[in-house]
Amino acid sequence: MADEAPFQFLHNEVLQYIYKSAENGETDNGRNIAKLENMGFRVGQGLMERLTKDTARFKDELDIMKFVCKDFWTCVFKKQIDNLRTNHQGIYVLQDNKFRLLSQLSAGKQYLEQAPKYLAFTCGLVRGALSNLGVKSIVTAEVSVMPACVSDHKMIRKIFS
Amino acid sequence: MADEAPFQFLHNEVLQYIYKSAENGETDNGRNIAKLENMGFRVGQGLMERLTKDTARFKDELDIMKFVCKDFWTCVFKKQIDNLRTNHQGIYVLQDNKFRLLSQLSAGKQYLEQAPKYLAFTCGLVRGALSNLGVKSIVTAEVSVMPACVSDHKMIRKIFS
């Protein structure tokens, strides 16, 4: 029940720290997002390095994405991705119906505009994980509804096939 | 095996971020330590709040310390404290022989002076956890040897009995 809690709490503190130090300084929202994304990138790289230590070589890109959806996601968020879709041309959509870093936010639409800063770290996380396996990617996130069950869409586009 | 890894990696990134942003700015080492300690404090508070949600009321201080050594430590570091000693007058020494946040550092004495910054967050973590249960404390940490098996001593002194 509380297995993922230390990570969640620390993530929230990092968020607050970065936004608070920005208030006193010069940085704008975009730069804070970039900082969080970079932080996620390096965490993702390191994590993937450790997780794939003893796994067999991946067959193809889809195989890599499945690993991200299952093992990688479970390691960080203690649950799997709920839905993986692809157009088989390098675009993947990962859907998490109960995204842990958002599940503490209130339901409804009033905090929807706050969502991007809660997603930046995770975008970087996925990008870093893929980068560690030699897949360059662009990762974006979307939240359409934020009910008790949160929906989190991730669009992953490869830019270099 | 990799259960505690996301937390560890994130902790390392936070450390690097705080120290790197300090290089460009005005802050000194003591202030960075304080920032980490404060971050740990709030994480500890939140975690303890969640962990004690369904537990019975604690009998006494020793009971609280045992909970910190077992449940709390396991939640964050996936292992228990190895040794708890007390003088029954408000001083507790917690010993972790393989402290996770140090176990990635090289053995030997050459990085011993780097240790405090890896311990600051955890000191705050314990202080925050105790504070959430109404125990005001001073938490300090010591590292005497840093071999493959890392020894981490924590001296917890209550200031208000």
UniProtKB/TrEMBL annotation, chains A, B:
Gene3D superfamilies: Trafficking protein particle complex subunit 3 (3.30.1380.20). Its main location: endoplasmic reticulum. It holds the Pfam family TRAPP. One of its GO terms (cellular component) is trans-Golgi network. InterPro entries: NO_sig/Golgi_transp_ligand-bd, TRAPP_component, TRAPPC6/Trs33. GO terms for biological process: endoplasmic reticulum to Golgi vesicle-mediated transport; nervous system development. Keywords: Endoplasmic reticulum, Golgi apparatus, Neurogenesis. It is found in: Endoplasmic reticulum; Golgi apparatus, cis-Golgi network. PANTHER family: TRAFFICKING PROTEIN PARTICLE COMPLEX SUBUNIT 6B. Belongs to the TRAPP small subunits family. BET3 subfamily. Component of a transport protein particle (TRAPP) complex that may function in specific stages of inter-organelle traffic. Specifically involved in the early development of neural circuitry, likely by controlling the frequency and amplitude of intracellular calcium transients implicated in the regulation of neuron differentiation and survival. This is Trafficking protein particle complex subunit 6B. It comes from Gasterosteus aculeatus aculeatus.
